[in-house]
Structure formats: structure tokens, C-alpha cells
Amino acid sequence: MPITVWITTSHTQCGPEDPDAYLFIHVEWSRQKLTHPPHPQYARYALATSPREAEIILFIEPHGRKTADYVTRLLGNALIRDYPEKCFTFDSQPEPTGLLPGVYASLPRRRLNPARYRPGSYLFMPNEVYLRPGTDPESAHPPYLFSFRGSRRSNLIRGALLDAGFEGPEITITETHQWFDHGQEEKDRYGKEIEDSKFVLCPRGIATSSYRMYETMAQGRVPVILSDAWAAPEGVAWGECALWVAEDRIAELPEILRRQEPEWRTLGRRARQEWERRFHPDIALYWTLRSIEEIRLFRGASHDEREWQHRWRSWAVAWENRWTLPQRVAAAARMSRLAKRTKG
Q: Is CATH 3.40.50 what the domain over 3-124+283-313 is classified as, yes or no?
């Protein structure tokens, strides 16, 4: 028998008229994937007729960073109160709170916990670049060894990359000033630049992960992952489809990538294969549910989720999520300094 899943969100305003209507769309799309499966593997799951009947209750949560009032929202949710052992989340927030167990797209390594949290990919892609895969690596002749197009606003690592002074006709580095507000022309230029590159630099931003990495894989190009803290999704042949470079080796990137250049077609071809197998939006929900199954099996029948809920209002949880007053003041100061660098 299929495993029954109820799909919802804690966002009480969720609906087609809500300012966050994208969340309503994502919840509906996820339900549709179980009602009209886009891939045979979904036969493992079925959409439940009610939360009571469901074996898994999946909360698809808003993308943005959560604040301390998120605890109140969760504790006030009837499903979390009545069925705590069945409740899990998929969350792509940049800095995971770790309140609900489940799958997080930007899980830092320090939060890895097989009985509670699993790293995952994004369920949805905001840029349609994935719909138009680049020319096959076997026949492609990209003019650039590597490229990066992006803003420095989200992380100091991006600023270091933009200020590294890389030069040469086979390198293109472009600073932009949009941040999740790109027009179609900018999106088109971004997609074409990925296609014209053998390797694409994928530095972390606010989040440890990035859409850029998956968009690069979708186009059959090689992502160069610059994110020391990111916990990558398991079961992926990362060593065969991507390059990992430590954040403190940014200055060495041209040398590293020139050494790897003979392998780019093999890596790019495998990147596209792994993306189709694990990260395409048609299949990402399936792998998210498989990860939740693994959490359920790992923690066992004696698990008491209410014990975790009692900790949600603790000072330790507030500190871990940077919700205390001193941490908020320090964060505001960091963002101010970063804004000044950007303007300069």
C-alpha cells in the first residue's frame, strides 16, 4: 500500500490572494504531484484524504528567514499539536531554524542529525533556466573556462570573489546589483553565460546552498561549490559531477580549474544526469519524502516529538537561531557594513 501524505503549510494566510501566493502555488503543485504523478517512483506515495488518515504530514514552509514568532505560529498549529509524531517539514529558508524535523535545502553541516534533519534540494526553481538545458557537453565548445554573475550583497565570500581580480579572455566575472528581483533580460543573460562556461562558480550567499548550483547542473555544466558549511544531499555522486573548492582558496581558482579543464565534459554530462535523477522539480518531492521516511525509521517508535517542542522557547534555541537581542544588533551591524561595501 502507498504511504499516505497530507501536504500543508503553517502559513495561515496561505491562499491565491496572499502576498506570498507563491507558497500557495507550491503547496498545490506538491499535492498535484501525488494526485497526478509526473514520475513512476511516486507510486510509493498517495495524497491522504485527511490529516488524521495520513502517515506523514508535510509542512511546506515559506522561504524567508524565520524570526522568534515562528515558534508561536508552530505551537499554535492544530496539526502540530494533535499529530506531533507525523509532522515534518520541507524548508528552503536560508538559515534553518531546526524546529520541525524534516528536509532543509540549506542545511549547515553543524545541524546534521539523521534522526531529525536531512539535507535536500529545492522543490521549486524560480528561474526557468532549467527548462532550456544547454548544448550537450560532448558537442559544446564554451568560450569561458569559468564564470560568475551575481551580487556581493548576500555574503562576504562573494565580495572576495568579485574583488579577486581574475583576468583573461577565458574568464568572465560580472557584478550585478539585483537580488531576487531580476528582469527577464538579466535572467536570459545569466542562462546564456552558464551555457557559455565550462565551470560556473557557485559561492554561498545568505544560504549555504544556492539555486545557481542546480541551474548549472541542469545545463550540463560543472558547478564549482564554494560553501564550506553546506551539507550536501546524500546519494549523489558529487565527486563525479561537481568540484568543491574551499572558501579560503578563491585566489587559486584559475589554476585549479585549468588543471580540471580536460575533465569538464565528463563532469558536465554527469551533472546533467544527476540533476535529472535527483533534482528536477518533477522528482524532488519524491526524494524529499524518501528522506522523511529515513528520519522516521532512524528515530524509532519510542520517539517523543513533544519533548522537542518543549525546547522551542528555550534560550538555547533562541541563541542557535540568532534571535537574542545582542545577536540581532550584531547582525544589523554586519549588514550595514556589507551595504557600505556594496555602495563603494
A: yes
